[in-house]
Amino acid sequence: MKKGWLTPLLFSLAALTGCGDSDWQHEEFSTGNSAFDFRIPTNTPAPFVPEDNPMTPEKVELGRHLFFDTRLSGNQTQSCGSCHLQELGFADGIALPTGSTGERLDRNSQGLLNVAYNSTFTWGNHSLTSLADQHSVPLFAEFPVELGVNDSNKEEILLRLSQDTTYQQLFAAAYPDSNPENGSDINFQQISQSLASFIRSMVSFNTPYDRYEQGDSNALTDSQKRGMDLFFSERTECFHCHGGFNFSQSTRHSKTVFFEAPFFNNGLYNLDGNGSYPVGNQGLFELTGKAEDKGKFRPVSLRNIEVTAPYMHDGSIETLEEVIEHYAAGGRAPTTINGQATGDGRQNPNKSGFVGGFELTAQEKQDLINFLKSLTDDSFNKDERFANPHS
Ligand code: HEC
Ligand code: HEC
C-alpha cells in the first residue's frame, strides 16, 4: 500500500462511513477563517478555528504567558505548565499527576502537540468539543482540584494579573477594547480564549516521517520504513484507529464538513467480566451511562509518542515495547495494577474487533517501535514560540 499524503485523506473519507465503535456524529459546522500563520506544510489542512475566537498573534502570546504562570492557580503553586512540560511534548512523564492542592487525578497528563486537530478533547469525553471549554476543567474543577480557581479567589487572581505591567500590555494588545490597568476590565473569558489560542497555535509537522512523506527518502531508516508498512497493515490494524495525517481517527480541521469522534475500547481492563474498568475511570461510560461505552477512549494521536510515556488514560503501560506487546496479545492478560486486579482485558465484551492480536518477530517489533519514534517532533519540543516566557 502506498502511504503518501493521499492515504491519510482516503482514511479520513473512509472514516465518514463510521468505522468507530462509538460514533459521535456532529452537525455540519462552519469554519472560522484566520490570518494567523500556523506554519504548516502546504498540503496539510489548517486547524479548525471557531468563529468566536479568531486566532491573533497577540492572544497567542498572552496565552503563552498565562499557560506558564503559577499566579493562575488559587494557591499560586501550579501552572498549566506544571503538568504539561515542553521537553516531554507537554506531557509530564508520570502516570497520574497531582493538582495544586494535593489531590491525585485519575488520568494521565496528555501531550499537547496538534491538539487543535482533535475532534474532542481529553481522553474520553464526547461533549468537550471546544478548547476554551476544556480549560475550564483544569482552571475551575473541584473533583479533583487542579489549578483551584473558584468564586472566592477569582477576583484576587484577576487582580494579581492586572497589577503586573507585562500583563497590562499583553491584555491591551490582545483585547484592544479592554482597559487592564483598571483591574476590573480583564476577565476569565479572555483568559480561557487566549489559552485556547496558544494551545491551538501549537501545531507542527516536522518529524522524520513528515520529511519522508515530503520526498526525502533518507529521512527514515530501513527499519522505520518496514515499521511503517507494519503500522499501515491489516496485520497490526494500528492505522484503523491511529490513521490520517495526525495519526488519530478522531480528527477535524478547517476543511472538515462532518466530523466524527470515534471512541474505542482497546482491552486494558475487564474487572467483572462484563467490561468494567476501574470505578470513576470508565471512559465514555462516565458520561453516557451506557454499558457498551465502558472502557471507550479517544484513539489519541501518536505524534510525539516517544516522549510522552507512560501510556494510556491512566498511565498504566510504561514503555512502547509493552504497548506493542499489549496489542499483539489482543489486550491485557490478567494482572494487578496498584494492587487492583485488572481482569482479562482480552475478553472485554466492548473491545474493538481491530484489537484481535497478532504475531511479530523480534525484528518486526523493533521495526514498529522505530517507526513510532519517527513521529517525534524534536523542533516542536524546543520551539521558542511555545517555551516558558517567565524562565
Ligand atoms: C494537575 C495537572 C494538570 C494541570 C495543572 C493542567 N492539566 Fe491539562 N491535562 C491534564 C490531564 C490529566 C489531562 C487529561 C484529562 C482527562 O482526560 O480527563 C489534561 C488534558 C489537557 C488537554 C486536552 C488535550 C487533548 O489532546 O485533548 C488540554 C488542551 C490541556 N490539558 C490544557 C491545559 C491547560 C491550558 C491548563 C491550564 C489552564 C492545564 N491543561 C492544566 C493535567 C493537567
Ligand atoms: C481499535 C482502535 C485501536 C487500534 C486498532 C489501536 N489503537 Fe492504540 N489506542 C486506541 C485507544 C482508544 C487508545 C487510548 C486507550 C486508553 O487510554 O484507554 C490507544 C492508545 C495507544 C497508545 C498510548 C497513547 C498515549 O498517549 O498514551 C499507543 C502508543 C498506541 N495506542 C499505539 C497503537 C499501536 C502501535 C497500534 C497497532 C499495533 C494501535 N495502537 C492500535 C485505539 C486503538
UniProtKB/TrEMBL annotation:
Its cofactor is heme. Binds 2 heme groups. Keywords: Heme, Iron, Metal-binding, Oxidoreductase, Periplasm, Signal. Its main location: periplasm. One of its GO terms (cellular component) is periplasmic space. Heme c 2 binds at C238, C241, H242. It holds the Pfam family CCP_MauG. Heme c 1 binds at C80, C83, H84. Binds 2 heme groups per subunit. PROSITE patterns: CYTC, PROKAR_LIPOPROTEIN. It is found in: Periplasm. InterPro entries: Cyt_c-like_dom (IPR009056), Cyt_c-like_dom_sf (IPR036909), Cytochrome_c_Peroxidase/MauG (IPR051395), Di-haem_cyt_c_peroxidsae (IPR004852), MauG/Cytc_peroxidase (IPR026259), MbnH-like (IPR023929). Residues 222-376 form the Cytochrome c domain. One of its GO terms (molecular function) is cytochrome-c peroxidase activity. This is Di-heme enzyme.
